[in-house]
Amino acid sequence: MNYFKKILRFATPYKKFAYLNIFFNILYALFSALSFVALIPMLKVLFNQTTKIYTEPTYQGIGNLEDYLKGYLNYWVTTYSGEDEMKALVFVIALVLILFLLKNVFNYLAMYFITFLRNGVLKDIRNRMYQKITDLPISFYSEKRKGDVIARITSDVLEIQHSFLSILELLVREPLTILFTIAVMFFISVKLTLFVFIFIPLAGMIISRIGKSLKKKSDRVQKEQGEFLSIVEETLGGLRVIKAFNSESRFYKVFSASTERFFHFSNKLLNRQNLASPTGEFLGIMVIGVLLWFGGKMVLVDKTLDASSFIAYMGLAYNILTPAKAISKASYGVKKGNAAAERVLEILETENPIKEVKDPIHATEFNSSLTLENIAFKYEDDWVLKDFNLELTKGKTVALVGQSGSGKSTVANLVTRFYDVDQGQITIDGTDIKLLSKRSLRELMGLVTQESILFNDTVRNNISLGKEGASEEEIIEAAKIANAHDFISELPMGYDTNIGDSGNKLSGGQKQRLSIARAVLKNPPIMILDEATSALDTESERLVQEALDKLMQNRTSLVIAHRLSTIQKADSIVVMEKGKILEIGTHEVLLKQKGVYFKLVAMQSFD
């Protein structure tokens, strides 16, 4: 229940629906009990046991309440029907039908209002989860599988929704139905009702034992669901490679092994859950059987209870079974939902290590320099950067070169604050970037990566991602600068063409030029290019490089380069190895030194 206390806070905006649900549930429970009580006068008319009362009885206090109500009901029937017994029967049948109709109307209204609460909570949890997913740092997803996160925001949240309804029934509707029914049963026969209470706790103990292991079993089912969703996500992402290496059967084996485990876990969970209903019903019928024996003795032998009251009493006793079964099912739902809530709250309560200060500075411009001062950083145990210093002056282009694993991309990740430095500081115009709001920091920067990250949307919406409300002229101008306008114009619907999942309807060079157009439109003062041309063919590289040259004009740029031919015009080239700077200078100066950079250029020239 601890997890559900935390989930309940999502119901606060919808509390008016909860109050209306509770109100109509109270009426439903009350009329559920009264509808069976109304059977007593009908049965008495049928059995010709109705006492004719022509004088309205007087109320003589709480001790005489039962006799007063029975007398008043008989007086009412007598007054309406006179000596006509069929008229009396029609009257009491109409009374029963009206009570049952009201009971079902209130039942519908209770369910009507709870629907808004359930779906509202579902919507808000999903919105909060999505917000959290986008807010958490990139490092979080190096530890979590994407499919598992998808499972949490879909099936786990849906499980909470179902369990949430169960809890409201558990807390309000079913207990009230039982309470009102038992009150009426006491009203009919105290002795018989006390006898019933001997058996109810015994049945409850047996049912509760069944549900103890449900949370653990449910947790295993939901984790396995996350596992096979991860496999599906990886398969769709790498389908081209899977087909190229004829690995379909291998991935099928992995997926089928996961679904096999899901099959066994689900069977155990559902079979344990399904045991609740027949067990509860059998125990209920046992109670009814004992009641028939004990109550029958009171009617036939002791003559302390009349037959019509006993039949109505049996109806009331059976009326307890349905809410009792619902409570047992709801309690199982709570245990299943508890496992789902734990997985959802694990995401929602994960603290973002990249935090903003209480009153962050909202930077609006870049005036002088971006400086990395004595920084050190590690992803896990080994230092990737150590005692690293670098200055990027406004209007200049600095290129980082070196072998893979030298820490080039890490510098870009730290500057954009996708990760935080472990030691030292990064400053913009002398202000530590940790004191800036993350939003304003990233507003100052544009990013073009080696892998063109595009979305399943139109060309227009992909380009305008960094500038909402951009005009048609601005989008076309950005595309022209990125050498993308010509090929966009040739697409079936031009700028309104959908480019498919990850932009797969376009070539690599076209995708990269769209990424550059997106950065151009944003028009940031600092541009970060992370190996933006390394995955392209010669012709695409030429077009993209022209676009990049236009992009970097009169702009501060940090270029991470694999192909050294693309950064020869840089104002400063920094040669890195294992997180340290080996050489720094212009292309010409570094060639004259005949050091590491000279060897790298020679190797690429030879290639």
UniProtKB/TrEMBL annotation:
Topology relative to the lipid bilayer, per the entry, is:
Multi-pass membrane protein
Q: Which GO terms describe its molecular function?
A: ABC-type oligopeptide transporter activity; ATP binding; ATP hydrolysis activity
Q: Does Membrane appear among the keywords?
A: yes
Question: Which SUPFAM superfamilies does the entry mention?
Answer: ABC transporter transmembrane region, P-loop containing nucleoside triphosphate hydrolases
Q: Where in the cell does this protein reside?
A: Cell membrane
Transmembrane helix keyword on record = yes
Please classify the protein's predominant subcellular localization into one broad category. Answer: membrane
Q: Where is the ABC transporter domain?
A: 370-603
InterPro entries per record = AAA+_ATPase, ABC1_TM_dom, ABC1_TM_sf, ABC_transporter-like_ATP-bd, ABC_transporter-like_CS, P-loop_NTPase, Type_1_exporter
What's the superkingdom here? Bacteria
* One Pfam family of this chain: ABC_tran
Please list the residue ranges annotated as the ABC transmembrane type-1 domain. 72-336
Q: Which protein, by its recorded name, is this? A: ABC transporter ATP-binding protein
